[in-house]
Specification:
The chain is α/β, with parallel strands linked by helices. The chain contains three helices and 14 strands. The strands form three sheets. It has a seven-stranded mixed beta sheet with strand order 1-2-3-5-7-9-11. A five-stranded mixed beta sheet has the order 8-10-12-13-14, with no helix packed on it.
């Protein structure tokens, strides 16, 4: 009788702990995706979710810290218009191929390292509503070739280690776009000139701010900084002595 009572107590404790965990962390969906109880926060996408594409429900306003961290199954995520925040390390070292957030007009914040080390990530599109971007956001995304972002944002280490970046599109507040090509100097919008080299050198020396991203593409060696060495390479490219 005492043994049965002890077993009953253990089972009660287990269920109580489970209830506390569920209340604090969210409810588990049958497909292996965890949400908060009110379905506004995507807490995590576990390894039991096997599909290559995942559509985030329109009820979700936040993707939690580390929600897809290390996930090697999900390659495409359809983001909802309701999304307001993407947490730190949300897609850290995941298999994500593209991050198209253009329709997320309510998105204002993306945390540090949210896409760090996503080696399959090829293109990123950020909405003009994004006012806070974390550090090392796309660091070491070695396959990233195309980035679209608002004109007011360029954290210093955002593209460090992005060795394949070729095209950066800056979206201005009036909706117009300026395209910069980082792969080579050519006669097109964003073509490399001696004036660009002068501006890059002034930014590198701290004599001029880079608030409007006029030299967004000028980080030639992809170290997340604009330096005198970058300015020299740009000047040589303008003189057609070198390409980058």
């Amino acid at each position: 009788m005492k043994k049965l009572f002890a077993v009953f107590i253990c089972i009660s404790v287990i269920f109580s702990l489970f209830a506390v965990f569920s209340s604090a962390e969210g409810q588990a969906a049958a497909d292996g995706v965890f949400y908060s109880n009110d379905s506004t926060v995507l807490v995590s996408c576990s390894d039991s979710f096997k599909a290559a594409s995942f559509t985030v429900p329109e009820t979700v306003t936040e993707i939690s810290d580390g929600a897809f961290i290390g996930n090697k199954t999900v390659k495409t995520v359809i983001f909802p218009k309701s999304l307001k925040e993407i947490g730190k390390d949300a897609f850290y070292q995941s298999a994500l191929v593209t991050a198209d957030l253009r329709s997320c007009s309510n998105l204002t914040r993306i945390g540090d390292c949210a896409f760090l080390g996503c080696k399959s990530l090829k293109s990123v599109y950020l909405p003009a509503s994004a006012v806070t971007l974390g550090e090392s956001l796309f660091k070491d995304c070695v396959s990233l070739t195309e980035l679209t972002l608002p004109e007011t944002l360029y954290p210093s280490s955002m593209l460090a280690g992005c060795t394949s970046i070729q095209k950066v599109t800056v979206v201005k507040t009036d909706g117009t776009e300026t395209v910069y090509y980082t792969g080579k100097a050519e006669a097109s919008e964003g073509a490399v000139t001696a004036s660009d080299a002068r501006t890059a050198l002034r930014v590198a020396a701290g004599l001029e701010p880079n608030l409007k991203n006029t030299v967004l593409w000028a980080d030639v060696n992809r170290d997340g900084k604009i330096t005198a060495a970058d300015a020299r390479t740009i000047l040589r490219a303008a003189a057609k002595l070198e390409t980058f």
